[in-house]
Specification:
alpha+beta; two-stranded antiparallel ribbon; 6 strands; elongated
Amino acid sequence: MELRNFPMDRQSCPLILGSYAYTSKQLRYQWESGASVNFEPGMTLSQFDLMGSPQRNSTYRRREGEFSVLQVNFNLQRHTGYFLIQVYVPCILIVVLSWVSFWIHREATSDRVGLGITTVLTLSTISLDSRKDLPKVKYATALDWFLLMSFFYCIATLLEFAGVHYFTKVGYGEIPVDEEEWDDLEGPKFDESVIVMSSVASVGLIEQRRRGSLICPIYKDGPLQCETPKKGTMERHTQTERRIPGWKQIFFCLTGNDKFRRMRQRAAGQQQGPGAMNSVSRIDKLARILFPASFFILNFLYWLGYVALADEFKWRQPPPSIIMAK
């Protein structure tokens, strides 16, 4: 069988009748007029649909002369429902699931990396399971190309986050503060072995905090209030410099330019204002559009090429070994 278009393949199985001892001058075969090939009512195949059974009278030329043969082709088309349910739909859903990381905050490194690795491992399991019953052919089938395309998108999602993490996320969320900037706020001392909670007045604790950090004084008298963070400890979310062209930014990302990265770190410390908090990377914004659009276009071309533009059944000359066996 020719399995390059598997599982959207069409197979043509020939049945050839002829003589290997008498030439066409001595013996000639012809099909009867009408329905020369009949099938048992209700006969079905588990994996194929019988599309037709064309027949013809033919002659085959060999060194001994020309020989009359009868040929009928059983044209079969494979059922794709099983593969759609077990392979194609799960792969599409897994690829779509990997895009969820574009909407996850870039500070959640473990969440985004874990989601990407999970999708890659799931695709690996589906790929191994789908090929265990196939013959070991030397070429790639249509199913293999689809799995490779899904692998590419899942791995590209991980690489996209690597670029976001390297160029638009600096540190762990806060700008480091020197030791001189630590404040010691002392309150009444207390016995560490026994802590008595009073409902009338809260006990003062020895607390040590950073100047300008977002810390709620939960052990103060009165209603609960939170201090507003100062500008010096603004969360370090950075965006790519607008003065640098986009193509240069991509080039610096691919080459790992340290000078550009240090410039980004300096810009992170100078960025202020509420717009800097919880900002979204422009790389993620672009990926939210680019990944789904390109995946849809590739899927459209894939199904158009393998289903809508599939080759029609053609007569093929059988090899000499088949004729000699008859």
